[in-house]
Design brief:
heterodimer; A: alpha+beta; Peroxisomal Thiolase, Chain A, domain 1; 2 domains; 13 helices; 25% helix; B: alpha/beta; two-stranded antiparallel sheet; 11 strands
Chain lengths: 501, 398
Amino acid sequence: MPGITAFGGYVPRLRLSRQAIAAAHSWSDPAIKARGKGERSFCNWDEDTVTMGVEAARDCLGEGSEGQPAGSPDAIYFASTTFPFVERQNAGILATALGLDGDCMALDLTGSQRAGTTALLQALAAVAGGQVEDALVVVSDQRRAKASSAGEFAYGDGAAAVRVSADDGLLRFRGGHSVTVDFIDHFRAEGEAFEYTWEERWIRDEGLAKIVPPAITRALAKAGVSADDVAHFCMPSTIGRAVAGIARSAGIADAAVRDNLHGGLGECGCAHALVMLLHALEGDVEPGDIIVVAAFGQGCDVLVFEATAALTAQVPAGRLGIRGALAAGKSTDNYQQYLAFNDLITLEKGMRAERDDYKTALTVTYRKRDMLLGLVGGRCTRCGTLQFPRTDVCVNPQCRAHHTQEPYAFRDEPAQVLTWSADYLTYIPNPPSHYGMITFDNGGRFMTDFTDVDVGDLEVGTRVRMMFRIKSVDSLRGFVRYFWKAVPVREVVASSAAAAG
Amino acid sequence: MARGIKDKVAILGMGCSKFGERWESGAEELMVEAFEEAIGDAGVDASQIDAAWFSTHYEEINVGKGGLPLSVTLRLPNIAVTRVENFCASGSEAFRGAVYAVASGACDIALALGVEKLKDTGYGGLPGSLGGTLNAQWAATGSAPGNFAQLASAYRAKHGVSRDDLKRALAHISVKSHANGAKNDKAHLQKAITEEQALNAPMIAEPLGLFDCCGVSDGAAACIVTTPEIARSLGKANVVTVKALQLSLSNGSESGHNSWDGSYFHTTRIAARKAYEEAGIHNARDEVSMFECHDCFSVTELVTMEDLQLSPEGGAIKDVLDGFYDADGQIPCQIDGGLKCFGHPIGASGIRMLYEMYLQLQGRAGPRQLANPTIGMTHNLGGSPMSNVAAVCIIGAA
């Protein structure tokens, strides 16, 4: 039976206090204070659906982690309702950034809040049919919401990734069912920045309550599982208690309904059903447990899984998972910063910000795609020196050999800070701009931008890891340039990942 | 075996515009201002110039590409004009072109002129540059202060210096340059400052505050060179000749190979060693009378003192605080105010440094005049600590 063989998650570091959102808007709507509980995640200025997807996939693929299937996936399914590119395959960016084999089918799925579960269903069908051997499913969302809207409180940013093959792996796919109904709880037209949403009570009573329970019943029947046996029910909804009602209608025990992570994360769009699944897998699922995953959006998808005996050490060392990422959050009440990062306020950026509005030479972007997207440098086959970028002439002053370098990926190389500064002059959306020289433990160095860094975080010798981020945005032409940046390795990361495991 | 440049070329005349926020002048007016002083000082006519080298860095906001802007502005007599660009060391590069032309015998009289009009950008500091179609897609964010501030982190780590001790030495460097600039009526910044002002200034790039950064100025400087023989035949006394002229460029090892610790200028050390050899200087600390170094930032000046072998490695802080480089110290540094206060019109700066050394050697430096200097040195640097162009020039009495 097909199943899930590995999983990984990512949540941006920043957590906005909902109390801060409520405080900003209570002047116009005193009742809004009631929403001011907990925190929601939000992207740093240099994160988006693609960068979060890359990090979730890295967490899933986790080179060197225990129990990882070998080889490169031969299909990549990428789901989001907030892709940065409408044309230019987003899954292709992922594949190159992850260094996947180019002999690979790739697909972007979008258009509905169940795009994530549909991507997973498609991957499971493809491996079951033998068309694909090893599929990578990445789901990621960064939903924009108008200031003071319900979505601003309810949504969060995040991503999840799972690897799917014809062998059960960690989770055996027992069966699933989809229904398609043009029920418009919300919509967002082409070119529109924000969604338009209908009344919650109607969505709950006429949509969720009537469409989802029969689909669950059909899925359980196909899986040959009784509703009583469901141990974990992972279904997102921003409407309070709607999911509990669905579970009751479908005969699933109240205790099986998973926390939707509203308190510390918010709903991560079409990624959220899998985010909830991962959160369950990272500590609460026992071998043999039945898990139902459902997502609603112009109908619904329902997937039924059974945990196998292989699901024991859920989060291998060195991996973060959703729980690790949640624990590594940085709380802030800086609502103005959230508005700025999400382009919800017109800020004076100064003339220095104008310099970035030049076009990107796509010929160069293509020629150097492994370097720019995959952080692939070189290793001199004569002297062994690692170097970035890869060039025709070895950088080692004692070698200088020509045409001796083979590709060498620096993505996962451990590194530390050699020099640094915090620059208050250069334009950056999140000043001061931290940058400096890093040296990789096994050789190689370059000047890099630091991100997810606070004033005082850096010293000579600070350990860093590389992360895939937005380098800059050509706002004139709507082109996002990606590259890699260094992020301080924080103690909380290691300890929380261990705790989650 | 190369024989070097020593005593083959003499400075016939020099000129320098007033540096600063020259709102009323464009690059063309600045060029004319510097050239008129230089040609008057040389005592020749423009028609006697055989070839010219023209340095400017930001052609985009300046005069455009090529040698034409100089040729057209000065109405030169249809001679060869070469535009050179080597970052902030462009001025030294123009000087090198003119000096080599005379030394080769191809020219009797050659002109080097550098100019930069920076205050047409609409903001303070230097404009950003893209660095090419590939670098634009991956090179780290950066400004000049942020790039040079990196030195401080590595220097502190290497020599075990506290942030406070470093900041005090950096403040002394800036206080000294402001005191010197106050005696220079061509300087951009002519006000003395206190150590407290320097220490409490707004942060630009950790640990560099406002007063750790040089002025962003408009200006031009010019130099006319010939052979020592022609200079004497034109009736010149106190002839100043070129003793050494060396350039060293990074080859990517600092930025790409784990052999550099980030705390010094690899290229400056090489250029200095070669220049001392060319000039026949055996102990720079004892033999150099004065110098202008590329003090784009206070920390650049601090580490350069060691790279030029004037202070022992790790010893610059003590020398600075002891006043070794002050106007009344053993080796006065930035006696004209330096980049810090005279100002830094990129393409002109290398020639501006030579202008002060030339005036001092001829005893014409007015209120700044030092007692009997014999050897003057300029250090002109372009780029960043991890990838740069270092120029060292030594001039002295013939």
